[in-house]
């Protein structure tokens, strides 16, 4: 099965500013997803980790992510698989109380048009609905402060 969700953000900011910020994986993943970047293999390949919770379970999600950028579209391809990130012994004990980590493939596509940003989340694999819903829930929470988040980052980067 395959699950897809879309989030649309109206934005007063120029496309090139949004492209610059959202193509920075550290900014995008920290502010708009429940993932933390653990390790960067290269500028366009990195590993993320997230602790996900659904109504009846808790589980870890580990993924290898590859980034692609074009004129007005940013694509993050995720390969979700347990064991991608080596943790400490304490982490292994904590994980023993959680559900089985999922396997699957997904992507986050960010496309920009004048005045709006559309983020599409696709995922196919284990725990599809839980993963997609958790990501969308985090995005919707952050969208409430979207202008403030972008403005603070612009000030920080002087753009």
Keywords summarizing the entry:
alpha+beta; DUF3211 domain-containing protein; STK_08120-like; 159 residues; globular; 7-stranded antiparallel sheet; START-like_dom_sf; Alpha-D-Glucose-1,6-Bisphosphate, Chain A, domain 4; single chain; 39% strand
Tell me the number of structural domains: 1
Total number of strands: 7
What shape does the CA trace take? globular
What sequence of helices (H) and strands (E) makes up the elements? Answer: EHHEEEEHEEHH
Approximately how much beta-strand content do the residues carry?
35-45%
Organism: Acidianus brierleyi
Protein name: DUF3211 domain-containing protein
Pfam families: STK_08120-like
Structure summarized in a few sentences:
It contains five helices and seven strands.
Structure description:
The chain is an alpha+beta fold and 159 residues long. 21% of the residues are buried. It has helices at residues 15-22, 25-32, 89-95, 128-143, 146-157; strands at 3-10, 36-40, 45-53, 58-69, 73-80, 104-113, 116-125. The chain has a seven-stranded antiparallel β-sheet, covered by helices on one side. It has one domain (3-157): START domain (Alpha-D-Glucose-1,6-Bisphosphate, Chain A, domain 4). InterPro entries: START-like_dom_sf, STK_08120-like. It holds the Pfam family STK_08120-like. This is DUF3211 domain-containing protein.
Please specify the SSE layout and strand pairing.
Blueprint (H helix, E strand, L loop, with lengths): L2 E8 L4 H8 L2 H8 L3 E5 L4 E9 L4 E12 L3 E8 L8 H7 L8 E10 L2 E10 L2 H16 L2 H12 L2
Antiparallel strand pairs: 1-7, 2-3, 3-4, 4-5, 5-6, 6-7
